[in-house]
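Aminotransferase class V-fold PLP-dependent enzyme: structure, please.
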Amino acid sequence: MTRAAREVRALTVLDGTQAAGWLPLNASEVDFLAVAAYKWLCAPRGTAFLTMPSQLAAADDSHPRRAEFFDRLKPLAAGWFAAGGAASYGRPMHLADGARAFDISPAWHSWVGTAPALELLLDVDVDQIHTHDLALANRFRTGLGLAELNSAIVSIDLGIVGRSWPGAPDRLDAARVRYSQAGGNMRFGFHLFNDESDVDTALNAVTDYAPA
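Here you go.
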């Protein structure tokens, strides 16, 4: 996909919110990678990240798509934090060069929580988190009679997985299992703060299985 985009000089933008934190990603494979940090990066709501190739962020026009990039992406919420130099204290008022032109005043308290969350993820290592999360998700899938997949996210329709389990949402709520439900599907996500006992608790609640 990215190769085809480059052949026609199209910019590639990837929303990695549902992947960054459990799935190893190479941001250099796309032009822009946007990530909201409150999901798999375990951060408070209010922080997000955007990456771009260094040649696009350069202060000169050496990259042929730089002019096109700035023509298409406008700073719509520019304020003092997006200003260059000492613009906050007098004229001339102008935007900073590079990506800071698109910044807004940070959500300070959210970043206080984001910093240690990212440090923990880097300390554990995303590759190890990926292995851990997949093992838990696939334990849950096989317990429901489903095939293993390469995703830490499990979405099930209780009516088509081979049998029906009436009352599963009530049992999950009683077991204090956190999940989401939309469009007739139930969505579970397994991360580094979960272990096999959490998987088994969810399985027992869904299937109404009472261990001896």
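Notes: Residues 61 and 67 are 7 Å apart (CA to CA).
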